[in-house]
Design goal:
This protein has 396 residues and is an alpha/beta fold. It has helices at residues 16-30, 50-63, 79-91, 107-113, 132-140, 184-196, 236-240, 263-274, 280-289, 292-319, 342-353, 379-395; strands spanning 37-38, 101-104, 123-128, 144-149, 168-172, 200-204, 230-235, 248-251, 257-258, 261-262, 323-325, 331-335, 355-356, 358-359, 370-374. The strands form 4 sheets. A 7-stranded mixed β-sheet has the order 2-8-7-6-5-3-4, with helices on both faces. A 4-stranded antiparallel β-sheet has the order 11-12-15-14. Strands 1-13 form a two-stranded parallel sheet. The longest helix has 28 residues, at 292-319.
Length: 396
């Protein structure tokens, strides 16, 4: 008789963004003539950079010719793609070998699947609020999860508690959902904590391209000791608009070991069994992203989203609402006005002005009473949404 993995029974009934989508769809069905502006799910709206599109087209053309056709890609990614990522790290002063890079189909996959190489009895530490995937993936794996509180009092940047032991630590900076960034001193404290606990940090740097202030590291490998304790994962979804194309990369230092076991080799063993690699045209697109012209073109898109973030942040300031993010992050995390609950404010904003955001409560208990807006929307929609928001707040 087949048996079910009953760890799934411990999950919340629905994934956060599925709930947001469902409630929005129900509202649209009931109000077909209302204009809806979506600033909730962090999906990009600008097209791929021209150089990326051309690179992907060229890759497809090569697959149409016998002399340049390619079948299964290398599990870890083509050498040209890994070298492009390595060169990108070098551009901001971090030495990562191409042989330590594995090309993936986005950070979401690897941050959740990395648990395959770790025992079920590891204790997993996540911050709260937290990107739900870190929690759900480890609940599915049957692991104990503990939380480090991210609150207004600590600027949503918790520090490790030396009295608490963890084996696997998930960090995301700039953070999703709060937009807060760990500075070098704070990140060093986490690295030191991981080393002292023989723990591994799973570091999600999906939003590193939005960092504009030098005091915030773009990679955990800027921190001394990180190669002894950290795995870094990044995605091109937000960096270059690959949400519909799916590509990213994971960095595992070749010297990183647990229980005298090399983690790069162990992950590669898992990868070669369960993953057949990222398609050739998409990896051609990745190479184009990190070319000189590619970086110039994607910077234009990033600047567009950064200006959207400033528009939202300026609105919060004008309305006297406390918030984080919006400077080094595409997310603005703000306190719901008049003590409203986050789902309560979701319904209120949707019904009153037709603007969709993401309730903070969906990211954990410390998200109660907070709310996330994304800067990935259309510029005019963002401007219009903030005009409506100001009217809503000023009339309340």
């Amino acid at each position: 008789m087949a048996k079910i993995n009953h760890n799934f029974d411990n999950l919340v009934p629905n994934y956060l963004f599925a709930d947001v989508s469902r409630k929005t769809s129900e509202f649209i069905k009931a109000n077909p003539d209302r204009r809806i502006i979506k600033l909730g799910i962090g999906d990009v709206t600008l097209p791929l950079a021209p150089i990326v599109v051309e690179a992907m087209k060229h890759g497809c053309d090569e697959l149409g010719k016998k002399e340049t056709f390619k079948g299964y890609p290398d599990y870890e990614g083509y050498e040209f793609a890994r070298q492009a990522v390595s060169n990108y790290y070098k551009s901001f002063g971090v030495e990562v070998s191409a042989d330590e890079i594995l090309i993936n189909d986005g950070a979401k996959s690897d941050t959740s699947n990395i648990g395959d190489i770790f025992s079920q009895d590891n204790v997993v530490l996540v911050t709260d609020p937290v990107y739900p995937v870190y929690v759900d993936a480890n609940i599915m794996g049957g692991r104990k999860i503990i939380y480090a509180d991210c609150t207004e009092e600590n600027g949503f940047c918790p520090m490790p508690n030396k009295e608490v032991h963890a084996d696997i630590i998930y960090l995301c900076s700039p953070n999703n959902p709060t937009g807060a960034c760990l500075n070098r001193e704070q990140l060093k404290a986490w690295v030191d904590y991981a080393i002292s606990n023989n723990a591994v940090i799973i570091y999600d740097s999906a939003y590193e391209a939005f960092i504009t202030q030098e005091e915030y590291p773009r990679s955990i490998f800027e921190i001394d000791g990180a190669r002894r304790c950290a795995i870094e994962m990044c995605s091109l979804s937000k960096t270059a608009g690959f949400t519909g194309t799916r590509c990213g990369y994971t960095v595992i230092p070749k010297e990183l070991t647990v229980d005298d076991t090399n983690l790069y080799k162990l992950w590669y063993r898992r990868l070669s069994t369960k993953f057949n690699g990222v398609s050739y045209p998409v990896q051609c697109g990745l190479k184009a992203v990190f070319s000189e012209e590619g970086l110039k073109q994607i910077k234009e898109n990033l600047s567009y989203y950064q200006e959207n973030a400033k528009i939202i942040a300026d609105t919060m300031t004008e309305c006297g609402i406390k918030f984080t993010g919006g400077i080094n992050s595409p997310y603005i995390w703000f306190k719901c006005p008049n003590g409203m609950g986050s789902w309560e404010f979701f319904d209120y904003m949707l019904n009153q002005i037709g603007v969709v955001g993401t309730p903070g409560e969906g990211f954990g208990k410390n998200g109660a009473g907070w709310f996330r807006l994304t800067s990935f929307g259309d510029r005019q929609n963002t401007i219009d949404a903030m005009k409506l928001f100001k009217q809503l707040i000023n009339n309340k």
